[in-house]
Structures are given as C-alpha cells and as structure tokens.
Amino acid sequence: MQRIVDRLGLNGPYLALALTCLLGWGFKAHCGAGWGASEQYITGCYSDAVPFWGLRGVAAGQIPYFGARMEYPVLTGALIWIEGLVARVIGGRGADAADFLNAVTLGNAVLAFVVLEFMRNAGVGVRRQYAWALAPPLVLYLGHNWDLLAVTFAVAALLAARRGAERKATALAALGSAAKLFPVLMLPLFGLGALFRSGLGWPRRIVAAAVLVATAVAAWGVVNLPVAALAFENWREFYVFSSERSGTAASVWELMAQFGWWTTDIPTRNFWSFVLFAGGAATIVAVGWRKHGARPWLLFMPVLAWFLLTNKVYSPQFDLWLWPMIVLTSTRVRAMALFLLGDLLAYFAEFWLFAGMDGAWPSATQSDVLAAAIVRGVAILWLIHGALRDDAPSWTVIPLPATPQPGDRPTPAG
C-alpha cells in the first residue's frame, strides 16, 4: 500500500496535468466548430484553430508561406501544418475544424507535458510542478492557439542557462523567437551575462558574447532564411502584421484611447510602447543586476512581464507566456494568485465585450475590461518588484560537488 502511495506522490504532477489537459480540451471542444449565437464569446470557447482551418489553407493541406498566408513565425507555421495533417488523417475525407481543434489541443498537451518533464529534470520543487500542472491558463489556452511551442523553447532556454550552457540556451531562445517573438528578450540577458562575467579578461568576455550573437543568428537563420528566400512576402507577413496592429481591448494603449486619456495612432503607439518598454527593461536589468547579475536569466520574467504591460497588443493568451516563468522564478504566492485572478477576469471580460457587441448576454463593457486589466497590472508590478527584491528560489542554485575530506580518502594498499 505504501508503495502505491509513494508512486502516486511521485506521479502526482503528471496526473494533475492530465486532468488539467482534459479540462482544457473540454473547455474549447464543447462548442465544436460550428459556432452559433456568439457562443464562442459567451462561453469562452473561441479558438484560433477554427477560423484557421478554412482561412489559412489548413483544410486543403496547403503549406504555410508557400501555399497559404500565415501571420505566425515559421516554426509555428510548421506546427500548424503538422497538426492540420494529423486532423486530416484522423478525420479522413470528412475532416473538419473540430478535428483540427482536437489536433491542436493534443499538440499543446504534449508540449505541456514536455515543460513539466523539463521542470522535474531540473529539480524544480513539487509545489512549483503542481503550479504548472494545475495552471488555470492551461485550461483557458490549451486549445486556443499555438503559443505553447514558443513557451516550451523559452523554458528549455531558461533551464539551459541555469545549468551554465549559455550557447545551448541562446540557440533555444533564438529558435523560440522563430515560433513567437517573445523569447528574443532572453538574448540580451545572455549576452550581458557573458560580457560582464567576473574572473575573465575583457578580450575573452567580448569573444564569449560574440559567440552567443553568432549562435543566435545561426539558429534563427537556419529556419527562417530558406522560407524568406523562397516566399518572402508571406514570410514577412508576421512582422508586417505585428507592426500594423492597433492594439487589443485590455492593452494599456487601447484602454487609454477608449477612455479618452491618450488617443494615439499606430505609429505613435509603436514608438512609445517601444520607448517605455526599453526604458523600463533597462531599469529592471540595472536594478536586478545587483542581486542576480551572476544569473541574469532570472531577470527574464520581470522583463517579459514589463513587455506585456507596455506592449500595444495584450491578447489574453499572452498570460501563458509569463506563467511558467512566474512558476519557475517567483517567490510571491499572493502576487501569483492575483495574476491568475486577473488572467481569468481579463479573459472573460474581453470575450463578453465581444458578445455584447453581437447583442448577446452575458456582456461586458470597456469599464469591466479596465477593472480586469488593473487587477492583472497590479499583479504584474508586484511580481516585478518581488523579482528584483527577493532572493532566487533555492532550486535555481546548483550545489557545488562536495570536496572529499582527508579522512574520506582510501588508504593506499601496502
């Protein structure tokens, strides 16, 4: 009996994650793919997989960029094509958007388990493993879109940096940016870590930083350049689309415009969102360096959090970018709980806002979105403050091997 209890304890996070993934599948799949009466907004079951099935050539098996438009970076485009193939194999001639939604959810569930395995192999504490395995954002976003691919690369890069494998971490972060752009924020931290590493002369530091730059360029280029060379216009659509977007309902910029506090056009938003992010990120790194300069990868979470807060686009699923980084590095449980509450409030506030625009109920107003954004924003600022003030979690420190004492050495024979 004790053996069974011990086995359940060992496998508990896996079982918890399986339950979470089942709930995530049910949350999106219960609407199917034939939405009616704004149910995708009312119940929150909206998924990008459903419109992508017909509008991005997935149903026809078109190859992203070469045969179909795609507003995602190339590795995400490849994942979409693979999951479309799985949907067509499973559904046969009658395959539809519901099959594709199931394939997307299954693919993200696999990635969620990969992240958990990474955490366990790195020695992350069981409580933090459960914080990932039982994460409410996984229920909300497991079947939502494809951002979990970049999240997996980002977690792998973070854990590689923790082991001191800077080149591997850099390559993983660069590949993550070929799935979704946000892992690129790791790269300056890795470069600064190499440039200001103690115990080395400046020539060696500069060479080490240059090697990381070359590694990042090579890793990103090997997956991007072939597509860019053969289908440039479709390849660049992600970058054009990102620059031309005006914003989303819960972003600071859209809220300021809606309430008449500061109405900005797209170029102005692009400029000032960059200025605010760059200035804030530089401040975060400068302040955090005093405590975490030896492990600058610990500053990725607050830098990413600040990016989300200042960016002109804050889609609900962006919270899934931040949550595993919070799980790995944060020490403020109340701030973590407030962030999860803000994520849930913002998710339904935005979708019920869309429901109200369709004349459906329940509906929300822009004031409701503002209230949810404030809750989440306070949590983000709290998490940033904690990341700069608190000591890093104990799991992040790799203990040095014990030095044998003279009395522990074997006595030579004879």
How would you describe the overall organization of this protein?
With 414 residues, the chain is mainly alpha-helical. The protein is 67% helix and 0% strand. It has 19 helices and no strands. Helix 8 packs parallel to helix 17 and helix 16 runs antiparallel to helix 17. The C terminus is likely disordered.
The shape is globular
Derived from helix and strand composition plus strand pairing, the structural class reads: mainly alpha
> Care to count the β-strands?
0
Largest sheet composition: none
| Estimated helix fraction | 55-70%
Number of discrete helical segments: 19
Rg calculated over all Cα atoms? 23 Å
Secondary-structure element order, N to C = HHHHHHHHHHHHHHHHHHH
User: Unreliable segments (pLDDT under 50, ≥5 consecutive)?
Assistant: 407-414
Content of β-strand: under 5%
- Average pLDDT taken over every residue: 93
| N/C terminus separation | 51 Å
Structure summarized in a few sentences:
The protein is mainly α and 414 residues long. Helices cover 67% and strands 0% of the residues.
Q: Topology of this protein?
A:
Elements: H1 2-29, H2 39-42, H3 49-55, H4 74-91, H5 97-121, H6 126-133, H7 136-141, H8 148-162, H9 166-177, H10 186-195, H11 202-230, H12 232-235, H13 237-244, H14 252-258, H15 266-292, H16 300-310, H17 319-329, H18 333-357, H19 366-389
Name a few traits of the molecule:
single chain, 414 residues, mainly alpha, 19 helices, 67% helix, 0% strand, globular, disordered C terminus
